[in-house]
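Collaborator request, handled under Task 6.
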Amino acid sequence: MAVSDECKLKFQDLKSKRSFRFITFKIDEKTQQVVVDRVGQPGETYDDFTESMPPSECRYAVYDFDFVTDENCQKSKIFFVSWSPDTSRVRSKMLYASSKDRFKRELDGIQVELQATDPSEMSMDIVKARAL
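Structure tokens returned to the collaborator:
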């Protein structure tokens, strides 16, 4: 599975320049390549991110999560989300599962990984718990 250069460049912008709040990626089955699906601007919220996940299609995503620690320190962690809803096609789920590690290796700087099959598995409470 190839990864488009745009994926790597957008991820670098998210990581170093904080140009985006999140990026969703999809596999283009015709070209057998991971491509950028959507980018979320810095002002967008976690709800905007979760709503951008299609209810019956798989996606990969990265989310730049800002939070405050118990010691009152402002921190940020980059989450990698593997979205594979139960209603998506079996072939699609297999393709995303088998390509995930290879794709993740292309994105240097991911700190937390999350797998979700429905919105409750990537709720804000779960994200906060994984970040701390």
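The cover message to the collaborator said: "The chain has one domain: 2-131. The mean pLDDT is 96. Please let us know whether this matches your experimental observations."
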